């Protein structure tokens, strides 16, 4: 059962479908002049999908404050319902990625049925060894998979293996591992020793990985550690993945790099060596990793998709951002549209012509070939894809018309305020 009445979406669409039809036909004629068949682009758009993060469905916060939203979800069942609303309206996010132990339930098989009943399945599962959890014996204060303390390492390995077991019951096929391990002081730990301990722990997790699973190693330059981070960059990530084996891949979170890093080139390098396993989408201006995807630098997002399309790469796609000011449902709908829009624009790149210009060293025409695709307004294709799939032509308007959040604010307890980095 989809969470919203389908006739609400149909009623909303009725008022918008004539204009969409016109815009779609006009764009079709424009693309036809460029020898692009809009119907084949539409088919590829309908085939594209990505995952939602369970932790992005509630309101996030900063280290300073968190301002709760009346009606926001407070447990995994409510998060699942909100995710299903996003999928019903946008039709591009049929999967949800869980985070343990935050989303742990006693009966994962029942949760899987609950999800399927609402049109959702589960993507990669995420372990959490960057904070202490109630009842655990060893602390992660000084590290988890790379900790000097053997008990903390053993506990972190066991937690990751438990995540695999939970994921198998949910139908997941990947384990994403991000650790907060690192140091704040030179000399605090041996840089070499920390990586050796990480590798030793990671091998134990890898050994427990089913044959049809992937282990996604996520790097992050800094935070919470501010002097050195154990898995700081894509270089460390690919070395780890190569050392572990074929099932280990790198996970690139767009916001986890030094400012100015050429992320599309990082993506291209990882694809070249068969090691790109996943992408986490968000945006940033300075050193953050939590702004809405495409809200700051949509051109960078396009250039990342240009590499993915050129190399026919389809890693695990997931949105990974935090919503402090907006309704998470609205932000996730808009972000998903920005991501698919970048994918579609990358499909419009005239690759034969681009290659010709590259061979001729015609710099201006080569870059103009990319720019032409980027500057194409693909919103009619995205809206038509949603309409064909049963979603809303204007998902935000339909969401607001549904009164979902106001209704939920009557049913759900107000989430806690305070500070919270998610
Ligand atoms: Mn991430």
Explain how this protein is built.
It is a single chain. The protein has 422 residues and is of the alpha/beta class. The protein has a single domain (6-411), classed as Divalent-metal-dependent TIM barrel enzymes (TIM Barrel, Alpha-Beta Barrel), CATH 3.20.20. Helix content is 47%, strand content 9%. The chain has 16 helices and 11 strands. It has helices at 6-14, 17-33, 38-46, 76-90, 108-117, 150-170, 191-207, 234-244, 263-272, 298-310, 328-347, 351-359, 363-374, 379-388, 395-402, 404-411; strands at 51-53, 95-97, 121-122, 125-126, 174-177, 182-183, 214-218, 228-229, 248-253, 276-281, 316-319. A 6-stranded parallel sheet has the order 4-5-7-9-10-11. Strands 1-2-3 form a 3-stranded parallel sheet. A two-stranded antiparallel sheet has the order 6-8. Strand 2, helix 5 and strand 3 form a beta-alpha-beta unit. The longest helix is centred in the middle third of the chain and has 21 residues, at 150-170. The chain is globular, with a radius of gyration of 22 Å. The chain starts with 5 loop residues before the first helix and ends in an 11-residue tail after the last helix. The model has no long low-confidence stretch (mean pLDDT 97). Manganese (II) ion binds next to loops.
């Amino acid at each position: 059962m989809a969470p919203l009445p389908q006739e609400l979406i149909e009623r909303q669409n009725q008022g918008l479908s004539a204009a969409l039809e016109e815009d779609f036909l006009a764009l079709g004629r424009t693309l036809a002049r460029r020898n692009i068949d809009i119907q084949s682009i539409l088919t590829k758009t309908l085939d594209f999908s990505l995952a939602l993060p369970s932790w992005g469905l509630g309101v996030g916060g900063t280290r300073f404050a968190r301002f709760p939203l009346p009606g926001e979800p407070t447990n995994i069942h409510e998060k699942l319902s909100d995710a299903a609303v996003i999928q019903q309206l946008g039709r591009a996010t049929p999967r949800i990625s869980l985070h343990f132990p935050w989303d742990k339930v006693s009966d994962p098989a029942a949760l899987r049925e609950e999800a399927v009943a609402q049109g959702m399945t589960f993507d990669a599962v995420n372990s959490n060894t960057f904070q202490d959890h109630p009842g655990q014996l060893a602390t992660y204060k000084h590290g988890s998979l790379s900790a000097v303390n053997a008990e903390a390492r053993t506990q972190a390995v066991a937690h990751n293996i438990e995540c695999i077991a939970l994921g198998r019951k949910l139908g997941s096929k990947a384990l994403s591992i991000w650790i907060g391990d690192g140091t704040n002081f030179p000399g605090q730990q041996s840089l070499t020793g920390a990586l050796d301990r990480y590798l030793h722990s990671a091998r134990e997790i890898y050994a427990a990985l089913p044959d049809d699973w992937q282990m996604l190693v996520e790097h992050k330059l800094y935070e919470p550690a501010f002097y050195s981070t154990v898995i700081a960059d894509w270089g460390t990530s690919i070395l780890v993945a190569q050392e572990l084996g074929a099932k280990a891949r790198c996970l690139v979170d767009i916001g986890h790099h030094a400012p100015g890093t050429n992320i599309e080139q990082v993506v291209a390098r990882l694809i070249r060596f068969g090691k790109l396993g996943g992408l986490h989408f968000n945006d940033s201006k300075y050193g953050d990793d939590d702004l809405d995807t495409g809200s700051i630098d949509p051109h960078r997002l396009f250039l990342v998709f240009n590499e993915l399309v050129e190399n026919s790469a389809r890693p695990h796609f997931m949105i990974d951002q935090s919503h402090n000011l907006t309704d998470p449902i609205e932000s996730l709908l808009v972000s998903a549209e920005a991501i698919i829009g970048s994918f579609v624009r990358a499909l419009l790149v005239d690759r034969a012509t681009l290659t010709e210009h590259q061979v001729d060293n015609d710099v201006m025409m080569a870059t103009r070939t990319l720019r032409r695709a980027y500057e194409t307004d693909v919103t009619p294709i995205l809206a038509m894809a949603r309409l064909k799939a049963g979603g809303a032509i204007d998902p935000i308007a339909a969401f607001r018309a549904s009164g979902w959040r106001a209704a939920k604010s009557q049913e759900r307890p107000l989430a806690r305020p305070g500070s919270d980095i998610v």
